């Protein structure tokens, strides 16, 4: 009986050792899978950051690139993002990170779709016909890119890093990933239009063929029309807004049309992203602080490249704010 008990005890100990060994191996495999997954994600994020720097660096300073060269580089970044999306979809996520993987796939689906649309609209935005609509479409895709940043930072990154922490895995955290640079500059249509206007040969850079010219066709304050020949009294509450209507009197779409309003020596500017030939657009310029009493209001529309006749680009008004 004693020998049997000893044998049974030995077998039980051996079973426990085997179970603990198997569990240790499984735990080690699980931790290894988590580490491998986070390492793959980090590499994709590094390449994403590089693509972001190239793309927005291109917008900031296109240098002497022609329209064809510029659009070619944008297309290259579109292709790079599509490849990154494919790599994300091919990741083998440990079961505990299935939800994080689904969210990461959404992040890169948004990024790839946005870059696809931007690349598609870029040639039109750098041309003349339809440039305004194309610029608007590109700006909307900047918002999509920003949404992808929010999903990554608020969902994907915390889930992955929390799981790594729970498993005691250090040094493998995934970093921040913001494709759109800090700030909201690229969410503004005027900023996008201004950037595209500096591309050599675009409708906003060197003047294209045909006549170029703008005209100041009307100015009002909170709906009250102003006249340069007489004094106008305006009753306002809160912040008065100067509405400046500009007409494109040339033959080409003009990008980044700047309107300047000067009141009591303070200059305020507003930009019309794009203005097609023969079209009119109104820029709304708030006056802060609000003027009081009789005020000289100077309104100017800055000339565009190639514009020669500028006498109708400005006017001065006398306004009594009550």
Can you describe this structure?
The chain contains 5 helices and 9 strands; from the N terminus they run H-H-H-H-H-E-E-E-E-E-E-E-E-E. It is elongated, with a radius of gyration of 30 Å. The protein has 2 domains: 9-196; 214-321, Sandwich (Immunoglobulin-like). The relative contact order is 0.10. The strands form 2 sheets. Strands 3-9-8-5-6 form a 5-stranded mixed sheet. The chain has a 4-stranded antiparallel sheet with strand order 2-1-4-7, with no helix packed on it. The protein is 48% helix and 20% strand. Helix 1 runs antiparallel to helix 2, helix 2 (67-89) runs antiparallel to helix 3 (98-125) and helix 3 runs antiparallel to helix 4. The N and C termini lie far apart (111 Å). It is α+β, with helices and mostly antiparallel strands and 322 residues long. Residues 19-28 have low confidence and may be disordered.
What keywords describe this structure?
alpha+beta, four-stranded antiparallel β-sheet, five-stranded mixed β-sheet, 9 strands, Immunoglobulin-like, about 325 residues, 2 domains
């Amino acid at each position: 009986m004693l020998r049997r008990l000893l044998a049974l005890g030995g077998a039980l100990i051996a079973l426990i050792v085997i179970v603990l060994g198997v569990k240790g191996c499984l735990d080690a495999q699980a931790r290894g899978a988590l580490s491998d997954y986070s390492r793959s994600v980090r590499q994709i994020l590094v390449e994403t950051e590089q693509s972001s720097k190239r793309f927005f660096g291109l917008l900031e300073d296109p240098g002497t690139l022609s329209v064809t060269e510029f659009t070619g580089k944008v297309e290259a970044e579109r292709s790079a993002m599509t490849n990154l999306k494919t790599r994300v979809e091919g990741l083998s996520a440990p079961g505990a990170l299935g939800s994080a993987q689904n969210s990461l796939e959404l992040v890169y689906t948004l990024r790839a779709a946005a870059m696809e649309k931007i690349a598609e609209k870029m040639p039109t935005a750098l041309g003349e016909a339809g440039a305004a609509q194309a610029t608007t479409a590109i700006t909307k895709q900047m918002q999509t890119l920003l949404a992808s940043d929010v999903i990554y930072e608020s969902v994907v990154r915390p889930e992955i890093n929390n799981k790594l922490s729970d498993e005691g895995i250090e040094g493998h955290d995934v970093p921040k990933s913001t494709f759109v640079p800090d700030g909201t500059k690229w969410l503004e249509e005027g900023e996008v239009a201004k950037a595209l206007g500096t591309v050599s040969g675009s409708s906003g850079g060197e003047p294209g063929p045909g006549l170029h010219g703008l005209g100041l066709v009307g100015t009002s304050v909170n709906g009250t029309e102003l006249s340069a020949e007489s004094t106008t009294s305006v009753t306002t509450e809160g912040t008065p807004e100067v509405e400046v209507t500009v007409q494109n009197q040339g033959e080409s779409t003009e990008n980044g049309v700047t309107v300047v309003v000067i009141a009591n020596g303070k200059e305020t500017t507003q930009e019309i992203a794009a203005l097609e030939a023969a079209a009119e657009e109104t820029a709304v310029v708030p006056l802060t602080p609000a003027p009081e009493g009789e005020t000289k209001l100077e309104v100017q529309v800055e000339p565009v490249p190639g514009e020669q006749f500028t006498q109708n680009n400005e006017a001065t008004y006398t306004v009594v704010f009550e």
